[in-house]
């Protein structure tokens, strides 16, 4: 078998994924809420943050590893919980889990997975976390018990989806699982024969964790696909969940310092600062900006997702106080482009970028990153009222 050469950058994996996947699937991967200003905001937060390198520092040996909850990880990365990955590649969850395990980083399984809780638990010996959507309390308790029995080490409760965001791309494309065959979707599939044949060979994706006799409930599956969550789930309900789960409990989707204080008081073990990849409420702060604003205001470990596309982004997040970063769309670009091999390549690429950035920054250990290594870019200069520009004059040779 020929050995594939890794693609040069994440943009190349995105382009390859876009060629392989039908338009409606790529739109599902890339889409966000409303007019998608949140996507730009997430990326802009990283772009306006600059490095402050330290020179004449011995960086001949670098260490990208971090420690979380007393455990050492070789990289400050995890694979974020992402639903319906089987629409990109059959057994997409298993591919992501195996690639994460090979890299020694955690994999987070979504409630909306297309492989079951138990199937993913058997996919290699990597560390696995389970992300919970609460649709109905009894169903949530069942999933928690299944994750516990299957050996998941961490439970992630996503709290920013009381209802579905206004995802216009999915509305326009008619994206749903199971797929509803329309002339437009049929044409889209016909134009992507490799994807279509793979889906037909393996069977169209379904919500696999709902397929058991206990969990099978068509109304609950429909509620999940439409993001019709338990909108009454509150801090009191969280206390019940905390009592049910004996291991680490993480809240995903908090956005403010007062919420962090409540999470700490509720016995949570960490928080993932996230705006759901800008897929829920369009005009909220970028999680990276939130991270910088709450730095030092909680004892809880802070993890970060939304907008991370490179090793440079990861280093900036660690310098701003994050303990670990979760890869979402970046991992899906690898999955869509080349399946499991593509995910491994994307993780390796970002790991290499982290290493290079640490060397150029003059900070050989990721654990030593701090706010002194970054600064906010000054806003662009504007013209003075007298008509003279405040921009520095460039001296011509």
Automatic annotation (TrEMBL):
Polar residues: compositionally biased ranges: 388-397
GO MF, any single term: L-lactate dehydrogenase (NAD+) activity
Pfam families: FMN_dh
GO terms under cellular component: plasma membrane
Keyword Phosphoprotein part of the UniProt annotation: no
Domain FMN hydroxy acid dehydrogenase: 2-379
Family note: Belongs to the FMN-dependent alpha-hydroxy acid dehydrogenase family.
Name under which the protein is recorded: (S)-mandelate dehydrogenase
Organism: Salipiger marinus
